[in-house]
Amino acid sequence: MGSTPFLRQARRFLWTAGFLAGAFTLAGCSDDPVEPLPSERTDIVVTDELHHLGDNVGAEGTAFTGTFAVPAAVDSAFVSVSFVYPNPQDQSGPEIVNAPRIRLNGTLVGLTIGDFPDNAVCIVGEGDTREYACDVTLRVPAATAIQVGSNTIELQSEAHWGGDDDFVFTDLVVTIWT
Ligand SMILES: [Ca+2]
Ligand SMILES: [Ca+2]
Question: Mean pLDDT, to the nearest integer, of 161-173?
Fold first, then answer.
């Protein structure tokens, strides 16, 4: 159940009033932390379609690039992406050692092997060509790479030699708090 714009405004007013009251109470007590104002969360869906990346037959290429707009400076931001396995394209999962790269405005924000759940049931293969063979949604911090205005995000397939760079993903979402 979502709140109406009026309720949201009223809530924000109460938070602001509470913040000001707190600030007055704390005047002269500089060691005490001041509660930050609440941020507003926005989910920016870059794509919610299925995409097959890699170099196997049927792939759209080794990279997906999208753009999105950010209206104001962000307090916090995350990028999330969902890997789909099994998938209608009959592709393997993402490699976890040479994981798919997420670049925001050219800055690398993920992924790394540590971003995948420690779930032996879902990890197939051996050594540097291990893949994550389950549905999984991963989330990485991205605030330092985001800018006000237009942004570019890229997801690129990677693979260890002898592995398979192909995978299928959906729901590439940038969540911001402003
Ligand atoms: Ca391949
Ligand atoms: Ca793969």
Answer: 96
